[in-house]
Amino acid sequence: MEFGQRLRSLRKERKLTSKQLGEKFKLAESTISGYETGARKPDIELVKSFAHFFEVSTDYILGESNEREKEKKNINSAFHDYENITEEEKDYLDLQLEIFRKMKEKNK
């Protein structure tokens, strides 16, 4: 499955129209349609934003993997082993979680 097909599938899972998705990203409905049909290609930053919004890995949204939550599994492994990591590592994970939450709130 290619990026456009994945984007359309993820959008429909969330029960969003292409217009609604475009509004969330400040993009025209025709731009979203162009991505979904393959007529247009998003830049890497937008791909990352879509992946974060849909809570999937960039590999998944690009069609390179069928594992939707690859990144989450790695994060879950880190938290599973949370008591065995250094204070510096804990601070880093806390900062990354804070950044993620701010990005998620911004994309609502």
From TrEMBL:
Q: Which SUPFAM superfamilies match?
A: lambda repressor-like DNA-binding domains
Record-annotated HTH cro/C1-type domain positions: 7-61
Sorted keywords for this record are: DNA-binding
SMART domains tied to this protein:
HTH_XRE
Q: Name one Pfam family in it.
A: HTH_3
- Superkingdom is Bacteria
Q: Which InterPro entries match?
A: Cro/C1-type_HTH (IPR001387), Lambda_DNA-bd_dom_sf (IPR010982)
This one is known as Helix-turn-helix transcriptional regulator
